[in-house]
Write a structure and sequence with these properties.
Distance between the termini of chain B: 134 Å
Largest sheet of chain B: 3 strands, parallel
Largest sheet of chain A: 3 strands, parallel
Structural class of chain B: alpha/beta
Number of strands of chain B: 11
Number of helices of chain A: 0
Oligomer: heterodimer
Helix content of chain A: under 10%
Strand content of chain B: 15-25%
């Protein structure tokens, strides 16, 4: 059973942004029409993020922390 | 965190977060992991045991499924490949199992040794049968018998004289007498014989006889 806090909708929204050369904690965030280039997506096992119409460059890596 | 030693878990869901299991047997059970502290399994046996993720652990799989539907599918595949190969970061790996030489595996070692001895015996018997018993007792005695091995029947052998040398000398003397003396071959038909030496001289002097037309 997933705790109710994990089922909540993303509370932060990013639109039309470009993320470059950085670590991005994605828990509870909504990304819309964003571009990720040379970034590390960090997930800690919290609220699921949403990616809508986003573009990912080849060098995007996945990292997990916390409960994830 | 709790430690379970030599316990049996059957037909149940086992919450494994943060627990350590040593010499335990899991059968027809489901290991439930919620994403907490990693469990450790040492010398455990798993029979028809499944795995279920809950809470944060399930959330992580959902996150990976979400990413797998985007352009990050290769990155997800790479990550899962690392999981399959056991290439986790050292900090995420469960503690290594303790060495097996604890004095309680002698029964297993004896079983393996007896099994190997049984296999060796079976192979030895098979080789003896294939290379020794079968060729000498089955193939050579088969019906019909092999021609090279069958004893010749004495009744079919020609009768040999008691003294081969004496018989040979007699035959030789008879032949020499026959070609070195005069005599009749068929007196009524007028056929006579002369010594070979004389016949050779006559042929030299008179030539070979010619049939009259």
């Amino acid at each position: 059973m997933i705790p109710s806090t994990l089922e909540a909708a993303p509370s932060v929204t990013y639109r039309d942004e470009r993320f470059y050369n950085e670590e991005i904690v994605v828990d509870g965030k909504r990304f819309q029409n964003c571009v990720f280039d040379n970034v590390s997506l960090v997930y800690a096992g919290g609220v699921l993020p949403e990616f809508v119409d986003c573009r990912f460059a080849y060098d995007v890596s996945l990292e997990f922390t916390g409960g994830a | 965190m709790s430690t379970h030693r030599n316990e049996k878990f059957a037909n149940q869901d086992v919450a494994i977060d943060g627990n350590r299991y040593e010499g335990c047997v899991f059968s027809n059970s489901t290991l439930v992991y919620g994403g907490g502290e990693l469990p450790a399994f040492v010398n455990c046996t798993f029979r028809q045991t499944g795995l279920r993720l809950t809470d944060v652990a399930q959330q992580t799989t959902t996150y990976l499924s979400l990413l797998n539907a985007t352009e990050l599918r290769p990155a997800v595949g790479k990550l899962l490949g690392q999981v399959e190969r056991g290439a986790l970061a050292s900090s995420q790996r469960p503690s290594p199992p303790t060495p097996l030489a604890m004095g309680r595996n002698y029964g297993q070692l004896a079983g393996i040794g007896l099994s190997l001895m049984a296999v060796a015996i079976v192979l030895g018997v098979a080789l003896w049968y294939g290379f020794i018993y079968f060729p000498t007792n089955v193939t050579l005695n088969a019906d019909p018998a092999q021609p090279l091995y069958r004893e010749p029947l004495m009744a079919q052998m020609p009768a040999l004289p008691d003294s081969l040398s004496a018989s040979y000398d007699q035959i030789r003397a008879d032949q020499i007498e026959r070609i070195s003396t005069y005599g009749w071959v068929d007196e009524q038909a007028g056929i006579a014989k002369i010594p070979v030496d004389v016949a050779a001289e006559l042929i030299v002097e008179q030539g070979l006889p010619v049939r009259e037309e």
